Write a sequence for this structure.
């Protein structure tokens, strides 16, 4: 009965009265929700006001993923906002499908339609499937709201019953959250990763969205594994079929820079040079630090730490460069004295291979002054070390 009620409330939002309410709530302040709700309930049914305020809240959250122009036209569920693909990532993936010559995609586990919308905007016809009736209705409404209904067919069904034979490609985004939060076992996904892989192999091309922390040994040999970051944050990993079997790729958005592994051995450990490079998270997840180190003519500061050091400053989209001014054994008193002497009040703390938390360190050293610095809490050749420097542009 709860889902029936939810469906009825959602359908009410699509009526003229519901649309009027949503328009009025576009810029509402959540801190004033009680007062706003009380005022609106004088003129509209209480259930409709509750649904509209809930949808307005979800739209505000969705702006970060979809941008204001789309988010305030779209519809969401709480899980949909949380689990849907960021628009920049969906657009990139849709362009990869398009470049492969794909014209029809079966989007299994389509959710609220984020990926289907990106595919349709790339000119690709999409069958979007989700077994939850409310989610399917939301996806259908989103296709209409963004004028893409002609390219998107939404079907409420069990994805395991879908015949994918008529499609050029399959895209599967299994649910990776359950009642207790995030699911780490790929076989506990819904549907399980093993089923998604079998479904992928039924089409000329396929992409399976998985968690970026997937073990490399879980990647099938006939799949290309791609890790994608957006604005420096790793968002997802994708298994591609019908592309480059066995390849490992790191793609950085919004630039679109894409690095493919060449199977290089681990870089040698060397003394800390003038510059330190912090590889993008997608590069680290894809195990492509060696490729970046070769590009920079650099080495590792420690065999277990993904920081690259080099004397020469070289441009690369795959790592952030820092000029190192000091290399010190870990010692809080010494660090505090050095920061005070240099009048450092804007302190960025990064850690890799250290148990000290950045906020704890910041609280203890009490930075004060007009200057800025970055401190790396890490290990150098196995020893706890502090590296101090500043970001530089090659």
């Amino acid at each position: 009965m709860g889902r029936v009620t939810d469906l009825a409330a959602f359908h009410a939002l699509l009526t003229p009265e519901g649309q009027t309410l949503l328009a009025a709530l576009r810029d509402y302040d959540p801190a004033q929700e009680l007062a706003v709700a009380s005022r609106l309930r004088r003129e509209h049914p209480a259930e409709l006001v509750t649904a509209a305020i809930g949808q307005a809240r979800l739209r505000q959250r969705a702006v970060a993923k979809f941008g204001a122009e789309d988010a305030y036209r779209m519809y969401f569920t709480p899980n949909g906002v949380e689990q849907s693909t960021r628009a920049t990532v969906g657009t990139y993936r849709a362009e990869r499908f398009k470049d492969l010559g794909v014209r029809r995609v079966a989007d299994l586990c389509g959710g609220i339609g984020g990926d289907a919308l990106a595919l349709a905007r790339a000119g690709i016809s999409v069958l979007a499937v989700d077994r939850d009736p409310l989610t399917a209705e939301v996806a259908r409404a989103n296709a209409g709201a963004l004028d893409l209904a002609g390219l998107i067919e939404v079907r409420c069904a069990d994805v395991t019953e879908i015949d994918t034979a008529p499609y050029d490609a399959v895209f599967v985004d299994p649910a990776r959250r359950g009642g207790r939060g995030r699911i780490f076992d790929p076989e506990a996904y819904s549907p399980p990763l093993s089923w998604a892989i079998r479904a992928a192999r039924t089409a000329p091309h396929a992409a399976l969205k998985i968690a970026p922390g997937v073990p490399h040994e879980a990647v099938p040999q006939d799949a290309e594994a791609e890790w994608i970051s957006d604005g420096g944050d790793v968002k997802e990993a994708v298994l591609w079929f019908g592309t480059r079997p066995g390849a490992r790729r790191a793609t950085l958005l919004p630039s679109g820079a894409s690095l493919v592994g060449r199977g290089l051995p681990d870089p040698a450990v060397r003394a800390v040079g003038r510059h330190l490079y912090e590889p993008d998270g997608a590069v680290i997840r894809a195990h492509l630090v060696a490729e970046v180190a070769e590009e920079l003519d650099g080495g590792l500061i420690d065999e277990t730490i993904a920081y690259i050091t080099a004397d020469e400053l070289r441009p690369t989209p795959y790592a952030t460069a820092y000029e190192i001014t000091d290399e010190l054994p870990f010692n809080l008193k010494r660090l505090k004295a050095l920061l005070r002497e240099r009048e450092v009040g804007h302190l960025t703390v990064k850690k890799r291979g250290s148990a000290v938390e950045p906020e704890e360190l910041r609280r203890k050293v009490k930075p004060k002054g007009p200057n800025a610095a970055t401190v790396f809490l890490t290990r150098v050749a196995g020893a706890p070390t502090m590296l101090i420097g500043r970001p530089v542009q090659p």
